[in-house]
Amino acid sequence: MGVPVRQVAGPSRYRERPAGPGPVRCVWIGNGGWDRRLRVLPDGCLDLVWTGAELHVAIPTAHPVRFPVAAGAVHLGVRLRPGLVASVLGESPCGMPASLRLREVWGAAADHAERRLATAEDAAGTLCALVSERLTGVDALVLGAARLLGTGGPAATAARLGTSERTLRRRCVQQLGLGPKQLHRILRFQAFLAATERGAGLADAAARAGYTDQAHLARECAELASARPGELARRPRIRRAGRNIQDRQRGTGEHGPYDVHRADPGA
Length: 267
Description:
By secondary structure, the chain is of the alpha+beta class. It has helices at 85-89, 103-106, 108-119, 123-134, 140-148, 154-161, 165-176, 180-197, 202-209, 214-225, 229-234; strands at 12-18, 24-31, 36-40, 47-50, 55-58, 65-69, 74-80, 99-101, 244-246, 258-262. It has two domains: 12-138 and 242-262, no CATH class; 140-234, Arc Repressor Mutant, subunit A (Orthogonal Bundle). It contains eleven helices and ten strands.
């Protein structure tokens, strides 16, 4: 991608591009725009984030997390496919906060990575290389579960993988910090968001994602996004924002300017 990370004043912008096959799902860059909190929705993925000076990691959670964003701050990140959290961190994420400096996990290796990124002409490519270099001990059972839980619950997924629900839960919690039921809810919610992004109506998107009724959808949106379904479905300016939703500006009840772009896959 070759995107420099720098301070740029102006409206908030986010864009991402698919990374193709491999452990990295997409590469993204975001300009914070103005001082505020960014609401990050759960998607079961691990993100490595380069601030231009430090490497941070965003750990998968089962609830929305609000991160402070400074005016003009530009962050570059890679988002991994679900199922690869402990494989890249090198340890279980259980007990870790939602976001932390990567050196707290990788130690001296993170310091070395930051020096590489500081001088890299292609910071995005360097981030992808770091993921590949650190990827060890992939749990095939958990990786398979992360693919199947988007379309079926824990019991059906365990049966398809030829294991018990108890074993599946233990391995998922150890590797992801999330149980199969939590990951199933998150992936179903992301399927709902994707359907609204493609233009589906609220009821149709809910049915496609597998929600039993509108009350079920409303409860899940409240817990996973702190938002109402209609709010998520009707606001076109946040639809292509990946994990992120801007919170209201303090004292105004309004959302600030927010432009979202998704680069062409070949960009």
